[in-house]
Write the structure tokens for this entry.
Amino acid sequence: MSKGTVSRSVIRRLPRYYRFLGELEKQGLIRISSRELSERMGLTASQIRQDFNCFGGFGQQGYGYNVKELHEKIGEILGVNMASPTIMIGAGNLGKAIAAHIDFNKRGFKLIGIFDSNPELEGMQIGSLEVKGTAELEQFCKSSKPEAAVLCIPKPAAAEVANLLVSYGISAFWNFSHYDLKLAHANAVVENVHLGDSLMTLSYGLKKLEDENK
Amino acid sequence: MSKGTVSRSVIRRLPRYYRFLGELEKQGLIRISSRELSERMGLTASQIRQDFNCFGGFGQQGYGYNVKELHEKIGEILGVNMASPTIMIGAGNLGKAIAAHIDFNKRGFKLIGIFDSNPELEGMQIGSLEVKGTAELEQFCKSSKPEAAVLCIPKPAAAEVANLLVSYGISAFWNFSHYDLKLAHANAVVENVHLGDSLMTLSYGLKKLEDENK
DNA sequence: TAGATTGTTAATCGATTAACAATC
DNA sequence: TAGATTGTTAATCGATTAACAATC
């Protein structure tokens, strides 16, 4: 199915395809052409065909793509059914919200533990999980073998925690801290969510817009 | 200062430069060369010089860049001191966390109102703000003229809310919903934060890693 | 068969990297 | 002046778009 290494730009587009195709399937659409999908998504048909062909031929000449099948294939590529055991470190504002708001199960992960160094948060219930103290972290990792970690901790704490987690065998990180995980752990799979950076990009856009209207 | 239009790829790197330079300044560093910065950030020196030169010459041949000055210049480009009046729509898990966790003031915005359609949340205190009902939204926008909005609402509600806000004169959106704002409002400045997409990208990476180790 | 649309190759465009002259 | 490092031009690389033959 796969054809060598697929570029990062293509991978970043897959979740969006997956979302659109899920919607279309829910709406009862059976087939769709690359042209029609391109119009709905604001892309070129060429790009869509190129993207899909990185993983092999999902379509049929003269017909297009079967929506349900394509949706499933992309889900498979993304690994949405992997249910990789995952822990969260940091149960502050952001951690709590992420744990409650994100459907990990539908996106390839299973949240099995939440940890915080603040003793006041210990025992707090988040969904079906109870926040544990970081003293329990090592033992938990040894017995439950989580593969991924969500880091919702401030930057100063992140370096040490990351070192620990890597030593416990965790290889994938969803990183909400400002700590540059990838620089210290080049082998880890890291997905950064720098909300502050995103907001500043918006600021740039708004500033430019106002400058143009002056 | 500016030299025509700057590419999106460059803009996306600016907040990271800003962060690193802020750190270096805090550490007391006076000057830095593109080569040294490149090593710390994991980029090429060439790219750094190209990036900075999109906005004019910030450096000095034979010397490098003044850290404090460069930090300030990039902050200015990003508009970190604009304090653009901003409202948030949606005070659920995610909205609450974003409002409490993000320092809007340091990133070009000033959060002046939070709205939710759920009457049970009305009156809830978040930081220095009190959640208002959506009935007050129109009046508030007319009197306080917010320029940006943070959308922390589910997808089904987003289309209608976005239309309203655009009609009230809001031109920049920090969009946490899965609604594709930019497709419907091409003129708006939109920064999407698709947390689910980000998590699925991580899933792909983890899956690939495990495949490789098999 | 004729029409439609893919899969794939070729052309274009843009972004990154390399090289080096300018200059502090 | 000599050494260092920028600003900028040229070369390379990668990603997107266009074109079209293959084929359903």
User: Anything to note?
Assistant: Chain A touches chain B through 59 residues (CB under 8 Å). The mean pLDDT of chain A is 96.
